[in-house]
Amino acid sequence: GESVGLHLPTLSVQEGDNSIINCAYSNSASDYFIWYKQESGKGPQFIIDIRSNMDKRQGQRVTVLLNKTVKHLSLQIAATQPGDSAVYFCAEKIHGSNYQLIWGAGTKLIIKP
Amino acid sequence: KAGVTQTPRYLIKTRGQQVTLSCSPISGHRSVSWYQQTPGQGLQFLFEYFSETQRNKGNFPGRFSGRQFSNSRSEMNVSTLELGDSALYLCASSLAGWEVGTGNTIYFGEGSWLTVV
After folding, report:
1. What is the pLDDT of residues B16-69, one digit of tens each?
2. Can you list the pairs that B46-55 forms with residues at least 24 positions away whose Cβ atoms lie under 8 Å?
3. Cα–Cα distance for residue pair B107/B91, rounded to 1 Å
4. CA atoms within 13 A on the CB side of A101
5. Which one of B33, B100, B104, B113 makes the best mutation probe of the A interface by having the most chain A beta carbons within 10 Å?
């Protein structure tokens, strides 16, 4: 079945460096992708989204890249800070589906001082 | 502006019991969806309500049900609890409904931690 997966369950990054979190999806009919951040004990928090007609979208310190050819999504965080420590989830929406996001298992980002 | 509020935050139930969780969406939001999150797993979609109507349902057994009231508040119920139902149950609300991808950001609550013993 369709799935959204993450290459690395845990990512350790030095404070100040850039972080890249990857996500693979398998459904070519997906037309919207979204990244969420979940800190310990809290609900997921929206970070950034991208539609399938785009390759790149930038936010504040974050950039999402979409490669439809290889069905790959990435989240780049610039100048990683301790507050970026969290689990990051990618999710996809399949075109035509009624408000049902398919979520990945998550990647835990650890910031080393 | 208050966020999505879920109650209770923590609860422990015994196998075979039933449980009701409550969610108050952000004021003005009419869509409420529910997710189950277990350790090491992503979010599993349960169902979504809009204007008191269930518009979409995930692949969960009939023991899982929900409803939405005229003020957009929502409840979900799990009957005949099983150990595997232990999870964080998240509620999310959005302004207009399912038009995900058009700037209709989904906001999550802090969740209700359910432990079944």
Report:
1. 999 999 999 999 999 999 999 987 667 888 999 999 999 888 889 999 999 999
2. B46/B76, B46/B89, B47/B76, B48/A98, B48/A99, B48/A100, B48/B98, B49/B74, B50/B97, B50/B98, B55/A98, B55/A99, B55/B97, B55/B98
3. 8
4. 27
5. B100
Q: Which residues of B touch A91 (CB under 8 A)?
A: 42-43
B11 pLDDT exceeds 90? yes
Residue ranges of chain A with per-residue pLDDT less than 70: 1-8, 97-100
Give the DSSP letter string of B26-51. Answer: PTT--EEEEEEE-TT--EEEEEEEET
